[in-house]
Specification:
This protein is α+β, with helices and mostly antiparallel strands. Helix content is 38%, strand content 30%. It has helices at residues 2-19, 26-41, 45-50, 54-66, 69-72, and strands at residues 73-85, 91-102, 109-120, 123-130. Keywords: Signal.
Length: 149
């Protein structure tokens, strides 16, 4: 009888774990954060866009072409300063310092950038970013208004 009870408990707990969506951790987030910043530093904007949520990629790529960022945007340095994982394990806030300039300006900007990553379909993706060379671009889209009855 004890074996049957133990087997039932194991099956119930195992089934619950199988239906719980996987949560991520800081170790899984690290490659996304570093990959985004390294590719930004080396002007690999097509690769940078793969770190974004899918709904932002097309606009991001278009804006890079419009601004001639492959020629005019230079990131001279970056430093990841802080990473905080939300309690749900599916959202993270990253603080980084990015030094950059965009021609025709020759003044180097030194911004503290806040990036919000989300864990979707098993990968970390950049959802929002405040400040830095993409200020105002990576903002969440508002949901369209609900149709009136």
């Amino acid at each position: 009888m004890k074996r049957l009870s133990a087997l039932m408990v194991a099956l119930v707990l195992g089934g619950a774990c199988a239906h719980t969506p996987p949560k991520s951790d800081l170790e899984a987030l690290k490659p996304a954060v570093e990959g985004f910043h390294k590719n930004l530093r080396w002007r690999n904007y097509r690769t940078v866009s793969t770190f974004l949520v899918p709904e932002e990629r097309q606009d991001f790529d278009r804006k890079r072409r419009e601004l001639n960022d492959d020629r005019d945007l230079t990131v001279t340095d970056y430093e990841i300063e802080d990473v905080k994982l939300a309690e749900d394990g599916r959202h993270a806030t990253v603080q980084s310092r990015i030094q950059w300039m965009r021609l025709p300006s020759v003044t180097e900007q030194n911004d503290t950038v806040t990036s919000e990553f989300v864990f979707r379909d098993g990968v970390w993706l950049l959802e929002k970013q405040q400040s830095g060379p993409f200020a105002g671009e990576l903002e969440p889209r508002e949901a369209p208004p609900a149709p009136s009855p």
